[in-house]
């Protein structure tokens, strides 16, 4: 099971990562011929023969032929909307913008839609796809251009193919550029890399040299080591593949990098579970990326409207507190067991309770405590518990199951966030221990951070309130949104992808539904 690594990636303020530099540096050079300015070679998209063939097959676009072809003049690159074999970010932005433009009717919208649906096969060729997008660009520009200046389509295209277009799009989209849209595009970028890796046929299953498998440690010599080395090279954790079968210093660093970004316990041991994770097919990894891109879409507008919030991600067992667009704190958590799952929902924290009582749920009393109380008359006193109005509750104190502070957000499932005296549980990779509530390792630090705007709550006052003697409750004048999420893949601030186990099998449910629907 995996712990969370740098979940703050989902809160990144930058919109694009360095891979987009290739777009910025693309050189659309200008050349001239003796008769006209259109310059093509044998591999270029827009020569006259290909253009004529395209407009014959897409006859409803023929009236735009001159305008479309003007976009390819002076361009020595064969395409406008592609980077290698993938539609680039500008193509994606054009597609989204065109869909939202009122009264824009594109004659071959179904063909365009196919380009952005990875589940479909037999899509238009790259040549047709680029010219279809260029045709859509012309129609989009005709509808959306309100500039009184009569700029040529080519000049307007130069303005479109820059970062401001993408930033403008992200600012107005349902995905917030500062938060989820950034994560969405980072996941999309990883998806493109995985697709390219899949097409290369370099991804081969790791076949352990010994059966049953034996753990590998530094200085070990094995053919398994050479296979792991190649895998980490393909994944980017290693800069080069020396093909050595010795578990050396170089591989140790790569293994550590791999483990940390994927949430494994940070050590150099290569156990069987790590080999199994490395052997998950690329097709499954890509499906996971797509699912989490959609999760970004689902939550983006809500987070975009929040200048302060707490976000808990169940699969990575991590909590992050954000204020004014900046991460103030992140902390490990443990969550509900598979039989008592933590509910995925949004709420609002309205109270902080210091040195709380714990009123034991009746289900726990019936299933776990009744027999113990019956067999041991001193059980309640020994556990610092008491019976009040027919209910069992644990008194405040350092051993209280809720620790020394809890954070309340009203909900029908009676879930809340709280401290815990069981700090050693945070050392586990799989942290599904609770009855549904969220146990926070750095609960006191969270309380301090959330109370910074309340001058009366000095550090000394907070320390006194958390002595575990008397319960005290403080109602927040401004409620703080809390989002309990379920992301099984995330990109950290270093641009590194992390995959986390599907602890509640929600990915499995979704992919299962998709498979059934596809039949």
UniProtKB/TrEMBL annotation:
GO terms for molecular function: carboxypeptidase activity; transferase activity. Pathway: Cell wall biogenesis; peptidoglycan biosynthesis. SUPFAM superfamilies: L,D-transpeptidase catalytic domain-like. Keywords: Cell shape, Cell wall biogenesis/degradation, Peptidoglycan synthesis, Transferase. This is L,D-transpeptidase. The active site is at residues 418, 437. The keyword Plastid does not apply. InterPro entries: LD-transpeptidase_YkuD-like, LD_TPept_cat_dom, Transpep_catalytic_dom. It holds the Pfam family YkuD. GO terms for biological process: cell wall organization; peptidoglycan biosynthetic process; regulation of cell shape.
């Amino acid at each position: 099971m995996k712990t969370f690594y740098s979940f703050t990636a989902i809160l990144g303020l930058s919109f694009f990562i360095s891979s987009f530099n290739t777009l910025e540096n693309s050189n659309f050079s200008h050349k001239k011929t003796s008769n006209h300015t259109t310059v093509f070679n044998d591999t270029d998209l827009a020569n006259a023969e290909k253009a004529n063939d395209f407009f014959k097959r897409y006859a409803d676009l023929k009236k735009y032929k001159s305008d479309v072809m003007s976009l390819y003049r002076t361009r020595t690159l064969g395409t406008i909307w592609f980077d290698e074999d993938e539609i680039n970010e500008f193509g994606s932005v054009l597609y989204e913008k065109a869909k939202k433009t009122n009264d824009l009717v594109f004659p071959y919208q179904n063909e365009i839609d196919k380009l952005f649906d990875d589940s479909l096969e037999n899509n238009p060729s790259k040549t047709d796809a680029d010219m279809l997008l260029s045709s859509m660009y012309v129609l989009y520009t005709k509808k959306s251009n309100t500039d009184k200046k009569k700029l040529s389509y080519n000049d307007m295209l130069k303005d479109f193919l820059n970062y401001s277009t993408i930033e403008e799009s992200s600012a107005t989209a349902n995905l917030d550029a500062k938060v989820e849209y950034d994560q969405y595009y980072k996941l999309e970028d990883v998806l493109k890399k995985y697709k390219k890796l899949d097409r290369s046929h370099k991804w081969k299953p790791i076949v352990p040299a010994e059966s049953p498998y034996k753990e590998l440690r530094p200085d070990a010599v094995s053919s398994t080591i050479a296979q792991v080395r190649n895998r980490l090279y393909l994944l980017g954790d290693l800069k080069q593949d020396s093909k050595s079968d010795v578990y050396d210093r170089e591989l140790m660093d790569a293994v550590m990098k791999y483990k940390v970004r994927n949430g494994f316990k940070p050590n150099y041991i290569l156990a069987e579970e790590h080999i199994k994770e490395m052997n998950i097919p690329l097709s499954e990894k890509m499906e996971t990326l797509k699912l989490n891109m959609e999760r970004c879409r689902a939550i983006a507008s809500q987070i975009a409207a929040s200048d302060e919030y707490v976000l808990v991600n169940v699969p990575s067992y991590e909590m992050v507190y954000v204020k004014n667009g900046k991460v103030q704190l992140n902390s490990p958590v443990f969550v509900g067991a598979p039989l008592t799952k933590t509910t995925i929902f949004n709420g609002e924290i309205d109270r902080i309770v210091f040195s709380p009582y714990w009123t034991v749920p009746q289900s726990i009393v019936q299933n776990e405590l009744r027999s113990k109380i019956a067999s041991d008359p001193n059980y309640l006193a020994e556990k610092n518990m008491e019976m009040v109005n027919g209910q069992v509750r644990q008194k405040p104190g350092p051993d209280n199951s809720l620790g020394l502070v809890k954070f309340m957000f009203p909900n029908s499932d009676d879930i809340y966030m709280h401290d815990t005296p069981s700090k050693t549980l945070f050392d586990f990779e799989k942290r599904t221990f609770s009855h549904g509530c969220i146990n926070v390792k750095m609960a006191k630090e969270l309380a301090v951070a959330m109370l910074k705007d309340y001058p009366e709550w000095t550090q000394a006052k907070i320390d006194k309130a958390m002595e575990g003697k008397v319960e005290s409750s403080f109602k927040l004048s401004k409620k703080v949104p809390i989002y309990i999420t379920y992301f099984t893949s995330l990109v950290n601030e270093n641009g590194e992808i992390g995959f986390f186990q599907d602890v509640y099998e929600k990915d499995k449910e979704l992919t299962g539904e998709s498979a059934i629907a596809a039949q």
